[in-house]
Amino acid sequence: MKEYNYLKLLNKLGECKQGDEHKCLQAVYRQLKDLTEDQIKNDRSSWSKLRVYYALYVDSTKLEHILVKEKKKKEELYVQKMKYSLLSFEECYRGLQKYLRDQSKGAIV
Questions:
Q1: Biggest alpha carbon distance in the chain?
Q2: What is the superkingdom listed in this entry's lineage (predicted)?
Q3: Ramachandran region of residue 108, left (φ > 0), alpha (ψ -120 to 50) or beta?
C-alpha cells in the first residue's frame, strides 16, 4: 500500500466544512488517527466511517444496493449490499482528494 497522508487530507476538508459534514469528518478523523496503514489495509471495519462519509457527502451513487455473489459453506449466494461497503481505501482517498480540489476551486458538489 502506498503512503497516504489521510489525516492531513481530512484536516483540510474539515477546514472548509460546517455542520453535520464537519461532525462526520471529526468522527472519521478520530477513527483513523491511531491506525497504521496495515490496519487500514487488513481491517475494513477500522475505517468504516470514512466509507460512510464518502457515500453521504462525496458520491451518493455509493448508497445504492447491489447484489454480490458470496461463497458460504460450499454454496454461492447473492447477498444485497450497499456499494460503499465495497469501496477500497484507495478509492476513498483519491475521491476525497478530488472532492477537496473541487471544493477549493469553488465547484458546487
A1: 52
A2: Bacteria
A3: beta
Residues 10, 98 contacting (CB under 8 angstroms): no
Which residues span the domain enclosing 17?
6-104
* pLDDT tens sequence across 29-61: 999 999 888 888 888 889 999 999 999 999 999
- State whether residue 80 is helix, strand or coil: strand
Q: For residues 57 and 92, is the Cβ–Cβ distance under 8 A?
A: no
CA atoms within 13 A on the CB side of 33: 8
18 in helix, strand or coil? coil
The grid coordinates of residue 82 equal 450497499
CB-count exposure of residue 95 (10 Å: 0-12, 13-18, 19+): middle
109 belongs to a structural domain: no
